[in-house]
Design brief:
With about 700 residues, the protein is an alpha/beta fold. Helix content is about 40%, strand content about 20%. The protein has a 7-stranded parallel beta sheet with strand order 11-12-10-13-14-9-15, with helices on both faces. It binds adenosine-5'-diphosphate and magnesium ion (MG). The site of adenosine-5'-diphosphate (ADP) has 18 residues, from helix 10.
Length: about 700
């Protein structure tokens, strides 16, 4: 139930003056919500200093300035394309206001000769004259009018001016109750010298003076509000989880050691550490919710296999879910080869399984004879029942919708869940982004991995690259060739379809093709052909980004590489270098490179460390963009700018955990205040059950 004091903020936007049925949908679209509160969360992207400057001769070209002068003349344009010129004089010189396609008579009314006017706008120079084209503000000082000393500038959408948005936000500010209690811990507010919530909102949206420090302090306070609300939600979810029962599955060190002895390699330190985290989570009588974050090739499958073995040792089943048919089959092959010899029964289930084969798998799951099952979403469809499901492992987690995860968590009695993600996230951000999940990081490459040699080659040398690919195929190696587009209707041949046809002709070998427009089964078949070696060259769009593991592949060509993001290039490169032969990643680019494209390519040539690349990406693009689209659903901050405010998150987490753990010892006032905050800013939980 919402607190009455917040009712004014949860009115629909048309409660605000000037917002009628016409503007309402436009404003809703802009602020991403229908309430007054959503508008208040629409933060300015910058602030313009509109304090008056003394004199015209002090004006600086290119800057926004506010000045006062006397109207000297209004001159109609001398031809259609010329502007109407309003000349202002202030004793130190002239300033020309130019108005294109304006009605001169209307302008004469606005600018009566001999009267004073205050104008604010960008100063330009045209043919040696100081000019201001279409001032943002024109005001009459005789009426006591002044532009705001600081003007917040908002992200806009067609149909809304900044003035309109600002005026509407100012009306919304008045609806924030004056008597809201402080929800942040008192000593922290004092130490940081933070303004109250309402004062912070006012400073951000309607500053009365130009004071950047005050604006930043207000933004920081609001960011902390959001961080605290999020962490409270997560802390509560965590607390609720530790009250729900789940089977306690004891660690099985002897069984794991027996498995380790059969491996052709030693687990890395990071794999061991992650396994220990998981072991102790599963041994607790409450559901595990852990994310295993590790770069491509860091060996997440093995960690998953260890967890599955721990479950099996106590008679529990594990469901290992992959986002695609091909990845599920691949997962099955790996697990089956590793675990069947140890006496575990491993099976696969995907949408492709039909008839009696499917029936017998379903029976094995129901009677408990299958220990470990790899599959797609089919693992959790109607009619699939498990005897004793103890662990769910979700691979390449970001490919799953929230709904899938929900459905899956509803199966069985709150089993343990491990999600695995290959999207590298800067270490500093991993915990804050994953919210209510615990995180283990695999930050160590398995030993003996061949480095991948990364080369950047201008695309006028494409023939050399084709020759190199041809030679690799003759050595019985395999190559990927990634194109930026599917379409045929391009002039440079860099579409997947055109490139596949061209390579087939030039090289005279079978060439596979996968792209996003193909049906699921066609894609799977093409990938399967490549995996088994029926085709040795695979032309693809970025659909092959995730997971495909073909150890014979030694060349990754990425065409028009300058157009790809850093994370994506890194993921693509990770498809090679999985075997014992030297591998190459060739970034074919079209010169000239922009500065950012050059930096992306240089970063990629410099390092193979996904976390380092993620940090670089984060610096180049900012966290919002890095995570925005790829991880949408995992993160959507309104007030936090991660680049500036990431440090606040651990403090908020600490405070929130304390608040939840010591809820009974907290003062009634603080508890009530925190409840208010949660109503304002608690996030939609992305992973909960
Ligand atoms: P990813 O984290 O991308 O899922 P995989 O689990 O597919 O990585 O592992 C990539 C490859 O590394 C596999 O061929 C696997 O057998 C191998 N591997 C895993 N752990 C180790 C290790 N500790 N030492 C050497 N190779 C390993
Ligand atoms: Mg994997």
């Amino acid at each position: 139930m919402r607190d009455e004091r917040l009712f004014p903020l949860f009115q629909t936007l048309d409660a605000l003056p000037g917002i009628g049925p016409k503007l309402k949908p436009t404003l809703e679209h802009l602020v991403g919500g229908e309430h007054v509160w959503d508008l208040l969360l629409h933060m300015p992207e910058r602030w313009i200093d509109r304090r008056p400057v003394d004199t015209f001769d002090a004006l600086v070209r290119g800057e926004v300035a506010t000045v006062q002068g006397e109207v000297h003349s209004v001159k109609a344009p001398y031809n259609e394309r010329a502007p109407t010129r309003v000349e202002l004089f202030d004793g130190t010189g002239f300033l020309i206001l130019s108005y294109f396609r304006a009605d001169p008579r209307w302008l004469q009314g606005q600018f009566p000769v001999g009267k004073e006017r205050i104008v604010s706008g960008r100063i330009d120079e045209y043919r040696g004259e100081r000019q201001m084209s279409h001032p943002d503000f024109v005001m009459d000082p005789a009426k006591g009018e002044f532009p705001p000393p600081v003007e917040p500038i908002y992200p806009l959408t067609a149909g809304l001016t900044n003035k309109r948005v600002h005026a509407t936000v100012k009306a919304a500010l008045d609806l924030i109750p004056d008597e809201l209690p402080e929800w942040i811990d008192g000593p922290l507010v004092e130490k940081e010298n933070w303004p109250t919530f309402k004062a912070a909102m006012q400073t951000v949206h309607a500053p009365t003076e130009w004071d950047e420090d005050a604006i930043n302090l207000a933004r920081t306070r609001l960011a902390y509000d959001e961080a605290l609300a999020r962490e409270l939600t997560f802390a509560k979810a965590r607390a609720a989880r530790t009250k729900r029962p789940a089977p306690a599955i004891p660690a099985a060190p002897d069984t794991l050691n027996a498995l380790v002895k059969t491996l052709p390699f030693k687990p890395t330190g990071a794999q061991i550490k992650a396994t220990k985290d998981i072991m102790s989570d599963m041994a607790k009588p409450h559901p595990m919710r852990r994310m295993l974050q590790g770069d491509v090739g860091s060996g997440k499958t093995l960690v998953g296999a260890f967890a599955a073995v721990q479950a099996a040792a106590s008679g529990f089943q594990t469901a290992f879910m992959a986002p695609t048919e091909v990845l599920a089959r691949q997962q099955f092959d790996t697990l089956d080869a590793m675990l069947s010899p140890q006496g575990y029964t491993v099976a696969a289930l995907t949408g492709r399984d039909k008839g009696s084969a499917r029936q017998s798998t379903l029976m094995g799951l129901a009677d408990g004879s299958i220990n470990i099952i790899a599959g797609t979403q089919a693992l959790f469809q109607e009619g699939v029942a498990y005897k004793k499901l103890g662990l769910i492992i979700v691979d390449e987690q970001h490919r799953f919708g929230v709904v899938d995860r929900m459905k899956l968590a509803g199966k069985g009695t709150a089993p343990h869940v491990l999600v695995m993600s290959a999207t590298p996230i800067p270490r500093t951000l991993a915990q804050s982004i994953n919210g209510d999940l615990d995180v283990s990081i695999l930050d160590e490459k398995p030993a003996g991995r061949q480095p991948i040699e990364t080369r950047a080659i201008a695309d006028d040398r494409i023939e050399d690259v084709i020759t190199a690919v041809g030679r690799a195929i003759q050595r019985d190696e395999r190559a990927f060739w990634v194109c930026p587009r599917v379409e045929v209707d391009d002039e440079d041949g860099s579409s997947a379809i055109a490139r596949a046809a061209m390579l087939r002709e030039v090289l005279g070998v079978p060439v596979g093709l996968v792209h996003g427009r193909m049906k699921g089964e066609e894609k799977d078949a093409a990938l399967e052909d490549f995996r088994t070696g029926r085709t040795k060259l695979l032309v693809a769009t970025t659909v092959i980004e995730v997971g495909v593991d073909v150890s014979e592949a030694t060349i990754m060509v990425i065409e028009r590489a300058e157009g790809f993001g850093l994370a994506q290039l890194h993921q693509l490169r990770g498809r090679v270098g999985r075997g014992d032969k030297p591998s190459f990643c060739i970034l074919l680019y079209r010169p000239p490179l922009t500065e950012h494209a050059r930096e992306r390519i240089d970063t990629l040539r410099r390092t193979e460390d996904g976390f380092e690349i993620a940090e670089a990406d984060y610096k180049l693009r900012g966290a919002g963009d890095l995570l925005g689209k790829r991880q949408s659903g995992l993160i959507s901050y309104r007030l936090i700018e991660l680049e500036e405010h990431a440090d606040l998150i651990p403090i908020a987490r600490q405070d929130a955990r304390l608040a939840v753990e010591k809820a009974d010892k907290m003062s009634k006032q603080r508890a009530a205040a925190l409840a208010l905050l949660s109503q304002l800013l608690s996030p939609d939980l992305t992973f909960s059950d």
